[in-house]
Here is the input.
Amino acid sequence: MRLGLQATNIFFEGSKHAGVSRSSLQLLEAILRKDEHEYVVFVRPDSPIPAHWLSLAHVKVVRVSKRTRTWHLIGRDLEPIRHGLRNWFSVSGYVPKTPGVKTATLIHDIFFHTFADTYTEEDRIIHERMYQNSAKHASFVFSNSQSTAQQFSSHFGYPTDRIIPLPFGIGQPKGAGDNVAPLDESDRSEIGLPSGKYILSVSTLEPRKNFPRLLRAFSSVADHPSLVGVTLAVAGGKGWKTSEIFEEIAHSGLSDRIVFLGYVEDENLIKLYRAAEFAVTASLEEGFGIPVLEALTYGCPVCSSNSGALREVGGDLPIYFDPTDESQISAALIGAAERKDRDQLIQAGIERSKLFGWDKSADVVLSTFQSR
Here is the structure.
């Protein structure tokens, strides 16, 4: 099979290489590892693509026109004809309207609709148009969870039997956790993490991640016997609308026990998961929930919001809470700190994580194109 892969919305490096862009690249890399097929990968004219792609005999890289607006309006529809493609997968973005071409796209979330107030009007319009294109022209659609599939179907009227959820993977490249040494004092110094026990929360700082409630909940139980001296460590880049987060810290009087580590490189992030008391995800909603899967993969118990797709990822292993109820978050933090079955949880989490993965997702994508 020859498959066109549109990767024009992927950022391969820099501060924007996170979230959707990072997940899209991991899926794309997994597809390219399936070398029994041929691929034509379309990237932006200025994209610094991974060097190893150029040595893959079954992969052809095409840089789209520098007139990217023109390409998105007209050029994309011509690419399947130019390159003799009957199959096209937009890893993130629009699909071509070329007759006779089987097309699919990947839906990560519809937060531009469910959390519209966290988007600019321009971004809302862009996302709405992009997904309307998918709903109108895609032969089928992949999603990152049943939750996202249901929301996309409900909002755009797309048939549920043409939406295929994928068993997404973690944010790190394949094998990243192999041979990683335990967290030590020099690592803590490099990362900016004080000595002692800590709870880990991995997320970009932005409104949907619900940090103000998490901080208030942590502050209310910080003196509980199970949490005395425990630090709340947040790993992730600074996003937008963060002023309320830092105001909460100032009001809490716990600035020495709430630390923001910023973006943490993969190796140190793996060390953080493995040494944490537990990980907490307080999001109001997630399309998938990569931090929960990362925690399970790297042997870290989980305390999680019960919203969106997070239950699909965690199963019955995390302690769940209503993310809008601070008293529930507080109780869950205490419950997670007092659990006595850490070793069993870690082993069960590692086993559950094996249900997911980018190679599994790639197999679903390719088999769907071949069978439909």
Notes: Residues 2-169+357-371 form a domain with the Rossmann fold fold (CATH 3.40.50.2000). The mean pLDDT is 92.
